[in-house]
Amino acid sequence: MSCVQKVNSRVLGIRAPSGLQALAARITEEIKQGTLKPFKRVIDLSSNDPHRAEMAPISFVRQVLAACLYPEIIKENSLPLDVRQRARELLGACLGGSVGSYSATPYGIPHVIKSIAEFITGRDGGVKSHSENIIFSSGSQKTLEMVFNLMADVEGKTQRGVLTPMPCPHTLPPLLDMSGLTLVPYQLKEDRGWAVDLDELHRALNSARGRCEPMAIYISNPGNPTGHVQDRKTMKEVICFAATEGLVLLAEEVYQDSVYGGDREFISYKKVLFEMDKSFSETVELVSFHSISSPCMGECGLRGGYMEVINMDPAVFQHLKQLQATSSPTILPQLALDVMVNPPTLGDPSYETYSQEIRHTLTTLSHNALRACEFLNNVPGMSCQPGAAGIFLYPCLHLPPQMIEEAKGLGVEADVLYCQRLVEEEGLCLGAGCENGQEDQNYHVRLCVLAPPATLDEVLTRLCSFNHPKQLLDAVQKCSVMCLVHYNCRSEDS
Amino acid sequence: MSCVQKVNSRVLGIRAPSGLQALAARITEEIKQGTLKPFKRVIDLSSNDPHRAEMAPISFVRQVLAACLYPEIIKENSLPLDVRQRARELLGACLGGSVGSYSATPYGIPHVIKSIAEFITGRDGGVKSHSENIIFSSGSQKTLEMVFNLMADVEGKTQRGVLTPMPCPHTLPPLLDMSGLTLVPYQLKEDRGWAVDLDELHRALNSARGRCEPMAIYISNPGNPTGHVQDRKTMKEVICFAATEGLVLLAEEVYQDSVYGGDREFISYKKVLFEMDKSFSETVELVSFHSISSPCMGECGLRGGYMEVINMDPAVFQHLKQLQATSSPTILPQLALDVMVNPPTLGDPSYETYSQEIRHTLTTLSHNALRACEFLNNVPGMSCQPGAAGIFLYPCLHLPPQMIEEAKGLGVEADVLYCQRLVEEEGLCLGAGCENGQEDQNYHVRLCVLAPPATLDEVLTRLCSFNHPKQLLDAVQKCSVMCLVHYNCRSEDS
After folding, report:
1. pLDDT tens, position by position, A121-176
2. Inter-chain residue contact B49 with A155, CB threshold 8 Å
């Protein structure tokens, strides 16, 4: 019997994980221990984790961080001049000239925060970003957690809620649970490429009122896991909706660096807000999030992100800052953020390599997404909306009724059962749509497409074999055609 | 008017920071901008932050991390062989062989967790530590936050509480506030070198019951900020107390690597617990904390720590693990932890350098602490208990009644007022005792003594000048004598 006789009810309320990643890890361990399986290794493409899939990091980021950690190598001249200069500059911004000191302010190193503000200003065509509105933290989940902690009401009688897209990033539902905020779902329109629909926002809001007090609307643009990129018209509608309904607009914009759909472009919510008249641009409370876990950086293991907070009541914002002040933020991911927002420019020694590496990532992403989408639409029992940005595809599963029944019997979601079998039989781990918040009778899987093309080939072959073994030969033949396409892409790229 | 009309009452309840560090930073910025001050720079020794004070990092840690970040430098052979081997080994433990991937499990990289368990087992003379009881997180504050979140009760009618030493680490009170736990103070005995007193524990507990439901007792050993090292007898008493009263024992043991008091040694609470009979060793719930921000590592900016959880009810422990699972932990500090718990050994190429650097840190710490303590006891208006471990001294301020009155008039704590003046007039930032949770009429300051000896000289001179300008000459003369002592220490050290 524990001294903690009764665990915090909020902790008890955190939804249980699907266990798929744990299953994949267990099978990997079994193979290591010598168990024979019909596959040599498990491929896990359930997360936004390009380095796990063996995509290479951006050299400039790694060189600068290595030099900051061990400044002796700056002296050796083996690193490019701009790497050494940047490392010196960043060390100069660290207290005591060391990455081992605490951060100069709880909100981030002033030098880095200034770089971020300049980046935002440039990105948004001159709409000024102010350092004092920016807060660094250990990744966008941690930043969101702060905002949720601010909004939650531990003593109020009505629960507070956040309008949340279905599907949403798979890390979001447990965060809401932990903060004690109610997830108020609004459905994205799959048949329109996962667009936001204004009528659906109103429906969701109205259905929530009474049940809880909606405080904010969460937007993921470009969409995680949908790959959808919102257009200006929709964004204006969302802003008007937030303004009219008195909601804070939480814009997760982590995939802003990876739009590959030819006719789409990323526009930030802040930019659109400041194109609108003052009744909006001076009042709508906007928090936007970005991170070094973005597809082009892919530095998920470093854990670093920031939020920019616009139009928040200064007293409320002060409390948000105080939440951050309870623990000093980590240094290295701040330095990585500095590199991300202020990369080498034309004429710098590292410019060519840097640009080529970014181009390679985007080309791989774009070709993989196109190829995988076409393929998935040919797999029996699957259909897939094309993506235009970000790291995931999110195909629909048309599951046979027997499997849905079987899942019910086993007490798991049918998409989880599908994914379990896929890991067990083919050694392929995808994310189950229920992790992205989706409910019954609407089954999807989440597939990270930023991986070396050969890995993607293997993944598609396994998927096809699993979904329809008899058509494997056909599919493999199709694969070969696609490999040719992909070969051409690679030639073009190099 | 904000959409967040009512900020989470828990956030509103976080105590405001003293503002001393912000004041120090502002004056530093003014000097940079050209404002003339009676000092050239502000020295901030208010935190446990040796690198800020320009103590050098441990080379082996930095070399390994740099090589993991940018594996190209492994090929260059300029780094010692054991650095290159360790980097390869650690990269092999990272998914996809990259520090940019998410952690293999939410609790930490299995390879690192295993190293930690082996370290604990060795340290405790063979008392077995099990990997599954260890959880990594971004520093011991974050680890504590998890435990506090588990214990807090958002819905219960009675508040829950934690017995907390006075003084306690200055980061602790805001963490308790944020979790909604009541700080139940127990006084350490200053006249006995800040020892824990059993009668006082009973008094504190009894006075709390009714007001709140005490869930845990927090111990800092070696003491932050007191420098006290507990003896086995006291530790057994504390364990019996926790057992009898049904409290979880939270043992912060971050300063275990830095005992310098000749007659003292660090013994872990776990070791003592397992020396006791089964009615204790199999029942008392113990969570112990360690971190790479320990004095010998001093890698505060990396943010990494772990907790070992003993005898916790498995269902409760599962919930603690689930809290960690809401966000993937950062990789590099895990690798730094691996180096800390598994350093080079005799015969390894880096052994000599590593040992010498650790010895230098401990010698500096020990001589500085001795020197500063003797000095502070000679400063009019101050008295200081000797430290035996850790990074701080915690002298008492005997403030003149006028100053206490003046502080009351200004609405600040008198120790904060003292420290404000000290920053403004002498450019020296110390921590105010009220940040360590201490109440009225009992004024102290917190001084980090792990700094280069020349910096400490300057600090003591400024302190003396501030407390008693007329005796400055005397003091400076004493300083010179001490510098001689310190010179001898250094010769001995090198």
Report:
1. 999 999 999 999 999 999 888 999 999 999 987 666 668 999 999 999 999 999 99
2. no
Distances (CA, A) of A181 to A139, A162, A262, B177: 20, 7, 38, 20
Residue type, A328: S
Q: Do B141 and A303 touch (CB under 8 A)?
A: no
- pTM of the entire structure? 0.94
Residue B434 corresponds to which amino acid? C
| Chain B residue with Cα closest to A148 | B8
Give which of A340, A368, A358 is closest to A296, Cα–Cα. Answer: A358
Is A86 in contact with A64 (CB distance < 8 Å)? Answer: yes
Q: pLDDT tens-digit profile of A202-219? A: 999 999 988 899 999 999
Residues making up chain A, counted from first to last: 494
**Chain A residues closer than 8 Å to B69 by CB:** 62, 65-66, 69
3-state secondary structure B19-62: CHHHHHHHHHHHHHCCCCCCCCCCEECCCCCCCCCCCCCCHHHH
Question: Could A49 and B325 be called an inter-chain contact, meaning their C-beta atoms sit closer than 8 Å?
Answer: no
Q: Which residue has the tokens 């080498």?
A: A344
Which amino acid does the sequence have at B118? E
Contact A111, A257 (CB under 8 A): no
* Rounded CA Rg of chain A: 23
Reported as half-sphere exposure (CB side, CA atoms, 13 A), residue A447 has a value of 31
Rg over alpha carbons for chain B, rounded to the nearest Å, is 23
Integer Cα distance of B472 and B461 in angstroms: 8
Half-sphere exposure of A9 (CA within 13 A, CB side): 8
Task: Give the separation between CA B354 and CA B59, rounded to whole angstroms.
Answer: 7
Residues found in chain B: 494
| Residue A329 · residue A97 · CB < 8 Å | no
Going by C-alpha positions, the residue among B420, B335, B272 that lies closest to residue B65 is: B335
Name chain B contacts of A52, Cβ cutoff 8 Å. Answer: 95-96, 98, 101-102
Reported ipTM: 0.93
pLDDT 10s digits, A2-15: 667 678 888 888 88
Token readout for A213 is: 């007090």
Separation between Cα atoms, residue B99 and residue B155, nearest integer Å: 40
Query: Cβ distance B302 to B333 under 8 Å?
Result: yes
Whole-angstrom Cα distance, residue A342 to residue B57? Answer: 28
Query: Which tens digits make up the pLDDT trace of B401-454?
Result: 999 999 999 999 999 999 999 999 999 999 999 999 987 678 999 999 999 999
Q: Do A104 and B25 touch (CB under 8 A)?
A: yes
Which residues in A lie closer than 8 A to residue B51 (C-beta atoms)? 95-96, 98, 100-101
Flag if A323 and B98 touch (Cβ within 8 Å).
Answer: no
- Separation between Cα atoms, residue A12 and residue A157, nearest integer Å: 19
Kindly report the backbone phi and psi dihedral angles of residue B182, in degrees, each rounded to the nearest multiple of 5, phi listed first: -85, 130
Q: Please give the C-alpha separations between residue B487 and each of B171, B295, B296, B459, B491, in angstroms, as whole numbers.
A: 35, 22, 21, 17, 6
Q: Determine whether the interchain pair B101/A8 forms a contact, defined as Cβ–Cβ distance below 8 Å.
A: no
**Cα dihedral across residues B70, B75, B76, B81: positive or negative:** positive
Residue A359: alpha-carbon gap to chain centroid: 20
Helix extents (H) in B342-470: 351-376, 401-410, 414-426, 453-467
Residues of A in contact with B301 (CB under 8 A): 94, 98-103, 328, 330-332
State the angle between helix axes of A314-324 and A140-151 in degrees (0 to 180), rounded to the nearest 10: 130
User: What residues of chain A lie within 8 A of the CB of B361, using their CB?
Assistant: none
Q: How far apart are CA B45 and CA B487, in angstroms?
A: 22
Any idea what DSSP says for residue B133? G
Q: How far lies A25's CA from each of A40, A44, A377, A398, in Å?
A: 14, 9, 29, 27
> Which residue from B16, B11, B13 is spatially nearest to B411, judged by alpha carbons?
B16
